[in-house]
Amino acid sequence: MQLTGELLIGQHAIKGTRDPVQAINPATGETLEPVYNGGSSNEVEQACALAWQAFDQYRETSQEARAVFLETVAEEIEAIGDALVERAVAETGLPEGRIQGERGRTCGQLRLFARVVRDGEWLDVRVDQAMPDRQPMPRTDLRQRHIGLGPVVVFGASNFPLAFSVAGGDTASALAAGCPVIVKAHGAHPGTSELVGRAIQKAVARCNLPEGVFSLLYGSGRDVGTALVGDKRIKAAGFTGSRNGGMALWKVAQSRAEPIPFYAEMSSINPVFPLPEALKARGREMGKAFVGSLNMGAGQFCTNPGLVIAIKGEALETFKQAATEALADANAQTMLTPGISDAYQEGVQRLSQHNGVTELGRGPTGEGAYTCQAGLYTASAQTFLADTELQDEVFGATSLIVECVDSDELLAVTEHLEGQLTATLQMDDADLESARPLVRILERKAGRILVNGWPTGVEVSDAMVHGGPFPATSDGRTTSVGTAAIKRFLRPVCYQNLPDALRPEALRDANPCQLNRLVDGKRES
Ligand code: NAP
Q1: Could you identify the atom of ligand 1 that is nearest to the CA of residue 229?
Q2: How do residues 165-222 score in pLDDT, each as one tens digit?
Q3: CATH number of the CATH domain containing 367
Q4: What are phi and psi for residue 67, nearest 5 degrees?
Q5: Within a domain: residue 498?
Q6: Count of domains in the chain?
Q7: Tens of pLDDT along 469-516?
Q8: Rounded CA gap, 184 and 193, in Å?
Q9: What's the pTM?
Q10: Is the pLDDT of residue 524 over 90?
C-alpha cells in the first residue's frame, strides 16, 4: 500500500496544513517519506463532530456486530502483510521478530475484546424486579446496564508501535465499550500509523458502521492533542508516554468545563527485591537473568526493572558481580527515537554525577547514533531515601541497586517508593516470612506483584493488571492491558420503571441477549 501522508477523518483522507512530522529511521538516521502535515483546528473539529454523530448508533450496535467489527480490524491488519512489518522496523529500529510478535499480540488483543463483547459480562446487568406488595413501601422496577462513555481520544505510544498505538489496547478496549475513537498518532511512527489506520477505516466500511467510529490525526501534542482532549464531545482519553506529557494533558482534561477521565500510563521503575535466602542460593544466576530483563528491547518497556532493593552482604556482592559481568555482554540496541536516546543519556548522566551513586558497570557502546549503552549503578538506602529524584524513570537499560543494612531499612525504602506498575520478589521458601510484610506494602504501591519472574513481558488476559498508583498511572483503579481495560470507558445507567418495550434489549424480561444477569440478587444462569 502506498503511503500518502494524509489524515484519516472518518472515511476521508485529507492533507494536513500544519507543521510536518516525518519519521526517522533510528538505525540509520535516514528521514523516511512521506511527510505527514499536522492537523489544524478544522480537522480536530471534523473528527470530533463525526465521532459524536457516530456515538449513539455505534454504542447500540449488537454485541455480535461489534465483535465482528473488532475481528475485521484484526483481519485487515493481517492483510497488510509484510509492508506493515517493514515500515514498523524502519520507523522504530526494533527487530523484525519483535514487530511480528507485536502484530500477533495486537490482533490477538482485538480478538480477545471481540470475545469480551460477545460474553456480555461488561454490561454487568442487574435487575431488581418490582415488589408492589412490599411493606412498608413497595419497590419499583430497577435495571442497570453499562454504556460507553462517548468518543475517546487515544495517544499512540512510541514504544509499542502496534500493540499500544493506533489499533492497540486503548483503542481495542474503547471500541469494545462502544466508544468511537480518535487517535493522535505518535510522531515517531506515522507510516505504521497510517497503514493501521487505513485498515481500521476499511473495517468500518466493511461492517457498515458510521464513519465517525474512527479517525486518525497527526500533529503535535501541544496543538492537536490538547485540542482533542479539550473538545467537549470527547468523554475520555488513553495515554502512554512521559510523566510530563501525561500530566500536561491530564491538566487539560481536568480543567475543562466538564472534566473527563484521562487514563495516563506514565512512569514506573519496577523494583525487584532479591530476598536473602534466594540471593544466597542463586545470586549468580539471578544477576545474569536480571540483566536479560533489563536490556530487553534496549530497556524501553514501561515494566523495565530500573531498581533493585536488597540487603547488603556477600550474597548481594555475588549478584552484583554476575550482573556486571552480564552487562559487559549486553549488546547496545537502537533506541526508538533521537529524543528518547537524548533523554536516556541525560538520565544516565544524572545518575553517574550523583555524589552518593557509584557506577558498577556499563555495557558495550553500539554502532549507530541512537544506541543504548546499558548501565548499572549502586547507592546506599540512606542516599536513596534522601533524594526523591533517584526514583525518576530513566527510560532505557539502566538500573540502580539500593543496598540496605537490614530488613527494617529495606521495608523503609519500600514504603518510600512511588506508585509502580510492577514489583518483583525473587525468593525461596525460606524467604516466606521476610516476604510477608513486603507484600503488604507492595499491594499499596504496585498494580502487579510477581514472584520469581521478571517484570518485562505482560500477558494480555483476564486477570492482568497493567496499572498502579500515581505516577505509574493517573488512575490506579484501572488497567490498560487485559480485558478489564474495557471498564475505563464504561459507566452504569439505571432504568427505573421503564416499560419493557422501551428498555434496552439487555434488560428486557425475555433476556433476548441471553446474558448472565443478576436478578433479585441471584445469577440467572
Ligand atoms: P511523550 O513525550 O510523553 O509523548 C507521548 C505523546 O504525548 C505524544 O503524542 C506527544 O506529542 C504528546 N505530548 C507530550 N507532551 C505533551 C504536552 N506537554 N502537551 C500535549 N501533548 C504532549 O512520550 P514519548 O515520545 O513516547 O517518549 C518520551 C519519554 O516518555 C521517554 O523518554 C520516556 O521517559 C517516556 N515513556 C515512558 C513510557 C512508559 O511506559 N513508562 C513509554 C513511552 C515513553 P508530541 O510528540 O507532539 O510531543
Answers
A1: 20
A2: 999 999 999 999 999 999 999 999 999 999 999 999 999 999 999 999 999 999 999 9
A3: 3.40.309.10
A4: -65, -45
A5: no
A6: 2
A7: 999 999 999 999 999 999 999 999 999 999 999 999 999 999 999 999
A8: 10
A9: 0.97
A10: no
pLDDT at position 1 is 77
Q: Give every CB contact of residue 103 below 8 A, 6+ residues apart in sequence.
A: 77, 78, 84, 85, 162
User: Is there an atom of ligand 1 within 6 Å of 225 CB?
Assistant: yes
CA distance to 278, 365, 516, 522, per residue, from 509 (Å) = 58, 68, 13, 15
The β-bridge relationship of strands 522-523 and 518-519 is antiparallel
Q: What residue numbers bound the domain in which 262 lies? A: 7-24+32-266+477-488
Distance CA 28, CA 30 (A): 5
507: cell is 434488560
- Express each pLDDT in 147-172 by its tens digit: 999 999 999 999 999 999 999 999 99
Q: d(Cα 335, Cα 342) in Å, to the nearest integer?
A: 10
Give the angle subtended at the CA of 315 by the CAs of 314 and 321, to the nearest 5°: 90
What is the Å distance from ligand 1's center to 265 Cα? 10
- Residue owning grid cell 555482554: 329
Ligand 1 centroid vs 266 CA: distance in angstroms?
9
Based on the domain organization, do 233 and 354 belong to the same domain?
Answer: no
Residue 520 lies in a domain: no
43 is catalytic: no
- What strands lie across the sheet with 142-148, from one edge to the other? 490-496, 142-148, 126-128, 518-519, 522-523
Per-residue confidence (pLDDT) for residue 368, from 0 to 100? 86
